[in-house]
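Field reference: sequence -> structure
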Amino acid sequence: MTVTPAVEEEEEKKPTEGFPPDETRLGIISAVIAVIITILLPVLPAVIKAVGVIFALLWGADSVRKTSKYGLGTGVPSIGVLAMGYGIVGAILGTAFASKTGYAAGALGGVLIMGGVGYLSGVMSNSEKFIGMKIPGLERGMMELGLAGSLAMLLQFSIVAGSLNFDVVMDKAISTGIIALLFILSCMAMFHPYNACLGPDERRPRTLMVSVEISGLLCAILGIILVVTAGSMWGVADGVSLVIFGALVWLVFYVKFVKAAMREAYSVVGTGLIKTIE
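Structure field:
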């Protein structure tokens, strides 16, 4: 799979937006925020952890867009699922490292390993000796997906389990089946934005609004889980605050996305009710 000169020229001529920052700066900002929150996990409320989740998923969504815009097509959902596959493995490794070392920062070992695995898979995908996709920047994109997916899942584990202890995470987040819900919603936050906005009028700021919107919905659901499983009034309050925070993020960015889509569309028409064939 090759990139045409027209695509390269179009990318070079795109003006730099004020917000969101460009791909590199957004990646650095998101990584720093998610890593700091991961290191400080034991003393942070769920709402702060949720901010890290949103930034990690936003970084992942931007990496999916960057990698997929060269013509992956039906591979857009697949690469998002792959990212969270990396994320689950990296997060489980991270909790094991955190338990062994006794420090939350030990969890970053799992994140780094999956970043390396992502980079290696990108190299193999682009290499003529293996798949030969020839997608520019695929190595970096896959590495970022491994890092972002692992950080996002680690933070979600900490919200649900209240800890990065391996046994606690296994008991509260994995054995209960909650991990399936976290997996699919995280996948949606990464691949659905570009998949939904895909087309000649796709615009990065509008696409990333969808990622934040879905991330807000995920946070609200995490809050509900926290309320249901809480063993203390503090846990209930933590969950309720997370539900409110997630609902507000979802509502604000849903409205922003609809307004942006209406404003930028060539025309908006009402189709009425869907007609059925008699």
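Note: The CA atoms of residues 146 and 198 lie 23 Å apart.
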